[in-house]
TrEMBL record:
Entry protein name: Rhamnogalacturonase A/B/Epimerase-like pectate lyase domain-containing protein
Source species, domain of life: Eukaryota
UniProt keyword terms in alphabetical order: Glycosidase, Hydrolase, Signal
Single GO BP term: carbohydrate metabolic process
Entry's Gene Ontology molecular function annotations: polygalacturonase activity
Family classification: Belongs to the glycosyl hydrolase 28 family.
Signal sequence bounds: 1-26
All residue ranges annotated as the Rhamnogalacturonase A/B/Epimerase-like pectate lyase domain in the record: 40-88
Amino acid sequence: MKSALLNIQSLLLLATTLLQSHYATSRIPIIHSYPHLSLSVKDYGATGTGLQYDTVSIQSAIDDCSSAFFLHRRRCLVKFPPGKYLTATLYLKTGVTLNISENATVLGGTRLEDYPEKQDRWYVVVAEDAADVGITGGGEINGQGLEFVKRFDERKNVMVSWNETGACLGDECRPRLVGFIGCRNVRVWDVSFNEPAYWCLHVVRCQNTSIHDVSIYGDFNSPNNDGIDIEDSNNTLITRCVIDTGDDAICPKTYTGPIYNLTATDCWIKTKSSAIKLGSASSYAFKHLIFDNITIVESHRGLGLQIRDGGNVSDITFSNINITTRYYDPSWWGRAEPIYVTTCPRDSNSKAGSISNLQFINITSVSENGVFLSGSKGGILSDLKFVNVNLTYKRWTNYTDGLVDYRPGCQGLVNHSTTAGFVMEHIDGLVFENVNMRWSKEKTGLWNIPLDFRPSTVNNVSLLHFYSGLYRGENKDVEYF
């Protein structure tokens, strides 16, 4: 009997302990076990007419949402019902996601006074030193970039620049669209970013960023309207994005620190500049970058590396990529190269960086120019590999041929007189495996050198199943020589 009582008392004690434990832990909010809080900008007085500024109302909703996050430990949505919301700079804060619904547009202001005093904070929406922030909802953020065009030009639009007011220097003094600076756990998805006046989506010194199911559209004739610029940031994923813009589409840069672990997959790109470009800002390392399953359409340049400031590049893979490139105009960097890999000092005060362990696997291209691989005396290209690569060269525009483009800086535009399948210099370690190069029959005279290199600067080359011949037509009949 005594033993039974002890057992009952033990069970009661255990039950009491468990209940106390449950009661204690139930008072500690677990973010993912509760629905998101949500606040509507309309409840804060936003008109949504697009005719008057709704900045104060929207910012008040963001501020309260962030306060609620810290109070309840639950992420908070700031909702934009259908309408147009004209605004000066909005400051996105910790714990807040902007939920811009379908048929809702956030319109960036076009006045200098709509933006902060410091030029590097000129964004329509910016988050700084924030965590757990995002933008979604199916709607749009629009920078009204066409309002910044001083003169429309099919070659390259002439843009309004606020340097005329003394607010900045140079000719790129226009506001960016969206920026995340020094943030953690950023997620941008199911949203459109349109008509930036300058760069579109700018990720700076951030950790753990996810960008997916985003569409970006910028005017095709406007300079500097980059799609996604990843700067000094680590652990970044870009997937299922559509980018149609006038300048570089996906552009990793290193100004103040390295870039590690960037993956971009399943994207569609059209641009008047480079579809993917590392640099030209390249003071620090680029390492462990993967670009896979990407379609590049009628772009001025396909895959580009412009290392100009001493940073080193290593362990980069481009795979399963379909490319078409064409000439647009010499005023834009690029000569329709499907692949462009360069290192050279930007100027006399710079040093060359290096590029190593670079792989191109399962690449198909139709282009008006060949592949350009150019290291420099102080920045050798090493251990480059091309595996299962199909290159078709044919001309369908009438721009001047035979120019090699080293810009920015370096040698500028150089008359090379001939057009080659591969132009190569300052390389140590180059492997071709199952590379098929086809030449257009219509202008055969332009294509007279499959491999153009100076042996004194190109060493340790391996060719396994390398083919070069005339392209006869869509039946893919190739006459090899």
